[in-house]
Amino acid sequence: KDTEILDSGPFIAPCVCHGAGTRLFCFCGEPLLHGEAVALGMMGELLLSAEFAGMDKEVAEEAAHRIGDHFHDVEVTGDPERILEVVKQDKKNRKGEIFFTLLSDPGMVKQDIVVPESAIFNVIMRLQAW
Fold first, then answer.
1. Which residues are CB-contacts of 9 (< 8 A; sequence separation ≥ 6)?
2. What 3-state class would DSSP assign to 129?
3. Residue 14: partners with Cβ closer than 8 Å, 6 or more residues away
């Protein structure tokens, strides 16, 4: 369970990328560094934390924007349905449900939170419009 906290959910690299080695690639084929994928994943998970883990929405939005300010030239590209399919393949998911480890407050995690596909799709769309 402790490794799930460090892993921080299925959103991180699989959501926006696939590949191996030191560079990952967006579904569009544009290079994306691992750190860029992690930052995008953190932004998405902050937004989900406000909706599903009780994190204050203003705190979550501000933190996501602060991360986004450092990665303003990085884009989430590709078909949101395909990205969602990759998220659904994460090893923490069970019985057809998508599980996340999210924040209830800064530094406070909640594990095994089921997040519906529609909410994940909406966050992917928000990240694409960021």
1. 41, 45, 90, 92, 99, 100, 101, 102
2. helix
3. 86, 87, 89, 90
What is the spatial distance between Cα 43 and Cα 49, in angstroms, rounded to a whole number? 10
- The residues near 87 (Cβ < 8 Å, ≥ 6 apart) are 10, 11, 14, 15, 98, 120
Spatial distance between the Cα atoms of 111 and 130, rounded to a whole number of angstroms:
27
Residues 6+ away with beta carbon under 8 Å from 40: 12, 15, 16, 71, 74, 76, 127
pLDDT tens, position by position, for the chain (130 residues)?
555 555 554 454 454 454 433 344 454 456 677 778 788 888 999 999 999 999 999 999 999 999 999 987 877 777 788 878 878 877 788 999 999 889 999 889 998 999 999 999 999 889 888 8
**Which residues lie across from 58 on neighbouring strands?**
none
